[in-house]
């Protein structure tokens, strides 16, 4: 039904008029999950990168601007795929659609976005962190975290801390933080570090396995006293601490070097003239069996 109406309207409207309206029909089709209309509009050549006007974007708390954002927030993989295939840019919104997809735990959408160039090291301008915000949303999805790390997510940024082995200031509870926000009505200015985020009560039970995964993606590193405290808090995590003993194994250092030379396109690893087991190791597939997820 709506396809018919839209196809009747298309010839009698003009692109200029649409542009002036501050919203494109693609946005409306994506917002309302009208996949068939979306397909029609894409085929008719509507700009998949069209953004909402500033005023319209400000009507949303998340300042969304693209049709892709609407598709992803609706968990609509079909619409997401159509837009990306048509060349939609996944890095135009303030809050990256990739962060949304990770938060929703939708592997299919995450994969689509990353394969089409979504920035795996996305940050949130209003909530500064010293590590990629993508990591923040992976706390309960270790396989997703590994996937992002395989695609160039910055593990080192997570393990660096301005306090190092010195004592850390007390952890801000959510209550303290929200009091602060209420009073000043603006986000905290000091960027949050990974060790602070992982210390939040809802996250700390995952600290060991997450640090363990991150360690596979860095060379020699010294963890800050807070991360060490986490590893000490649970005896099963002692093995993770052993992994840290410098120097890291030569195999790990070689893997780091080879992966950085190969770059983000991990599929290129398979074209190297190397035995299968070595390729598996380079792909971080050596411990799939006893993985945590
Ligand atoms: C997505 O929806 C469109 C329109 O309904 C349809 O033509 C297309 O086959 C669907 N694609 C997938 C991958 O389901
Ligand atoms: C999104 O879709 C996935 C898979 O189709 C599903 O597991 C998940 O619960 C959905 N999330 C939301 C927020 O609807
Ligand atoms: C959308 O933006 C991306 C990235 O800037 C660009 O590669 C692509 O060609 C654009 N697509 C269209 C249809 O303009
Ligand atoms: C946060 O609140 C707790 C309990 O009210 C208090 O003990 C602690 O000092 C507060 N921390 C900061 C940084 O204000």
What can you tell me about this protein's structure?
With 293 residues, the chain is mainly α. Helices cover 51% and strands 0% of the residues. The protein has 20 helices and no strands. The radius of gyration is 22 Å and the shape is elongated. The two termini are 44 Å apart.
Characterize the biggest β-sheet.
Answer: none
Radius of gyration: 22 Å
Alpha-carbon distance between the two ends: 44 Å
Characterize the overall form: elongated
On the 0 to 100 scale, the average pLDDT is: 87
Give the helix tally: 20
Report the strand count. 0
Q: What small molecules does the structure contain?
A: 2-acetamido-2-deoxy-beta-D-glucopyranose
Low-pLDDT segments? 289-293
**Helical content, roughly?**
40-55%
Helix-strand category:
mainly alpha
Order of helices and strands: HHHHHHHHHHHHHHHHHHHH
Strand content: under 5%
ANK repeats: 21-53, 63-95, 93-122
Domain SOCS box: 247-288
Protein name: SOCS box domain-containing protein
GO biological process, one term: intracellular signal transduction
Short description:
The protein is mainly α and 293 residues long. 51% of the residues lie in helices and 0% in strands. Residues 247-288 form the SOCS box domain.
Give keywords.
20 helices, mainly alpha, about 0% strand, about 50% helix, Serine Threonine Protein Phosphatase 5, Tetratricopeptide repeat, about 290 residues
């Amino acid at each position: 039904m709506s396809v018919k109406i839209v196809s009747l309207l298309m010839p009698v409207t003009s692109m200029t008029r649409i542009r002036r309206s501050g919203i494109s029909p693609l946005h409306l089709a994506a917002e309302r999950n009208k996949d068939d209309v979306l397909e029609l509009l894409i085929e008719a050549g509507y700009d998949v990168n069209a953004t909402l006007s500033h005023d319209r974007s400000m009507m949303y708390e998340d300042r969304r601007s693209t049709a892709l954002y609407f598709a992803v927030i609706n968990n609509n993989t079909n619409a997401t795929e159509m837009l990306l295939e048509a060349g939609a840019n996944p890095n135009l919104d303030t809050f990256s659609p990739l962060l949304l997809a990770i938060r929703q735990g939708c592997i299919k959408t995450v994969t689509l976005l990353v394969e089409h160039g979504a920035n795996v090291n996305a940050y949130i301008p209003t909530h500064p962190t010293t590590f990629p915000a993508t990591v923040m949303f992976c706390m309960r999805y270790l396989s997703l975290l590994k996937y992002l790390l395989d695609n160039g997510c910055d593990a080192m940024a997570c393990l660096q801390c301005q306090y190092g082995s010195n004592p850390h200031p007390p952890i801000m509870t959510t209550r303290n933080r929200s009091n602060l926000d209420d009073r000043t009505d603006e986000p905290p200015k000091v960027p949050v570090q990974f060790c602070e985020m992982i210390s939040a009560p809802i996250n700390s039970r995952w600290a060991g396995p997450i640090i363990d995964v991150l360690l596979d993606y860095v060379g020699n590193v010294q963890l800050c006293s807070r991360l060490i405290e986490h590893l000490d808090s649970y005896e099963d995590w002692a093995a993770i601490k052993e992994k840290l003993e410098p120097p890291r194994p030569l195999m790990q250092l070689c893997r780091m070097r080879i992966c950085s030379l190969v770059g983000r396109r991990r599929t290129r690893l398979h074209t190297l003239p190397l035995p299968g087991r070595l390729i598996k190791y380079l792909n971080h597939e050596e411990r799939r069996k006893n993985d945590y997820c």
